[in-house]
């Protein structure tokens, strides 16, 4: 469902951030992307939805080359790609529900003009997702009142409301304490399986990757240095 072919990214300065990455992911796959800081994990994940513009290569999602789309086409294609960030990227002064719904819109100001007659269908779906992620009692709470784990749960609900085929998670647990990090990984892995979507989780804690994902891809200096079933990894390494 996702095939990355010879992906190269060169920023204005520095060496190649991605140096010819090839990666294939089937529907329902969850992969953990690991590697040292600066390896290119974040760049790779962000190239897939073009938050970072690739220098060359192809990103085929369900047969469409994401890297060749114009702005309008890209906006459509991005509905199919959910993104979850390390620092949650919530709008602090909006409620949990508003944050979840705003994921469907191009901008918060657009959302504010629409909020009074937002389609009921999305509100019902958002409520059921908020229940599922354990925030049923926090629908009207402002984002700035939430703990880190709760914030990430909002981020997850917001991403899933789009019904994406692919979920990109850029260090989703890096700002959380170890226990909360494990709870969030468990939730993500369960939801991805429940909804049969694919996920790429950029994560630097190897232990978490091994605990929760079956396939681990290692990146170093912009190149894939291994791609293994987690069980086959040498855990002492
Ligand atoms: P991480 O290691 O979690 O990816 P970084 O601290 O490397 O985070 O990067 C934080 C932000 O700074 C990102 O938005 C990244 O794109 C940007 N950044 C990283 N390295 C450079 C650089 N050499 N020049 C300019 N911006 C950079
Ligand atoms: P990781 O996520 O594995 O820490 P990154 O993708 O953040 O790696 O960074 C890969 C390389 O690209 C690093 O050398 C980093 O400094 C560089 N880089 C990242 N973002 C930028 C940016 N916005 N401008 C310039 N260089 C960047």
From TrEMBL:
Gene Ontology MF: a single term: ABC-type phosphonate transporter activity
Q: Cross-referenced InterPro entries, in alphabetical order?
A: AAA+_ATPase, ABC_transporter-like_ATP-bd, ABC_transporter-like_CS, ABC_transpr_PhnC, MetN_ABC_transporter-like, P-loop_NTPase
Q: Which UniProt keywords apply?
A: ATP-binding, Cell membrane, Membrane, Nucleotide-binding, Phosphonate transport, Translocase, Transport
Q: Where is the ABC transporter domain?
A: 2-237
What's an example GO cellular component term for this entry? membrane
Which Pfam families does the record match to this protein?
Answer: ABC_tran
| UniProt xrefs under SMART domains | AAA
Q: Which residues form a coiled coil?
A: none
Superkingdom, taxonomy of origin: Bacteria
Asked whether the UniProt record includes Transport among its keywords, one would answer yes
Q: Which PANTHER family does the UniProt record give?
A: AMINO ACID IMPORT ATP-BINDING PROTEIN, PHOSPHONATES IMPORT ATP-BINDING PROTEIN PHNC
Protein name listed in UniProt: Phosphonate ABC transporter ATP-binding protein
- What is the originating organism of this protein? Halanaerobium polyolivorans
Q: Which gene encodes it?
A: phnC
């Amino acid at each position: 469902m996702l095939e990355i072919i010879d992906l190269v990214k060169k920023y204005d300065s520095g060496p190649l951030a991605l140096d010819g990455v090839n990666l294939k992911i089937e529907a329902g796959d969850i992969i953990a992307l690991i590697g040292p800081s600066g390896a290119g994990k974040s760049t790779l994940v962000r190239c897939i939805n073009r938050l970072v513009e690739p220098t060359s290569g192809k990103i085929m999602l369900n047969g469409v080359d994401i890297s060749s789309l114009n702005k309008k086409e890209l906006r459509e294609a991005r509905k199919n790609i959910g993104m979850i960030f390390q620092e949650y990227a919530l709008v602090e002064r909006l409620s949990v529900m508003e944050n979840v719904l705003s994921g469907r819109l191009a901008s918060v100001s657009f959302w504010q003009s629409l909020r009074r007659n937002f389609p009921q269908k999305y509100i019902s779906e958002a409520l059921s997702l908020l229940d599922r992620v354990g925030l049923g009692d926090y629908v009207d709470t402002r984002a700035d009142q939430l703990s880190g784990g709760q914030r990430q749960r909002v981020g997850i609900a917001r991403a899933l409301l789009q019904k994406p085929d692919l979920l990109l998670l850029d260090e989703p647990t890096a700002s959380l304490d170890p226990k909360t990090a494990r709870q969030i990984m468990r939730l993500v892995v369960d939801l991805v399986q429940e909804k049969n979507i694919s996920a790429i989780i950029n994560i630097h804690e190897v232990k978490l990757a091994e605990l929760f994902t079956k396939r681990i891809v290692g990146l170093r200096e912009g190149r894939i240095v291994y791609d293994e079933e987690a069980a086959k990894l040498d855990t002492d390494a």
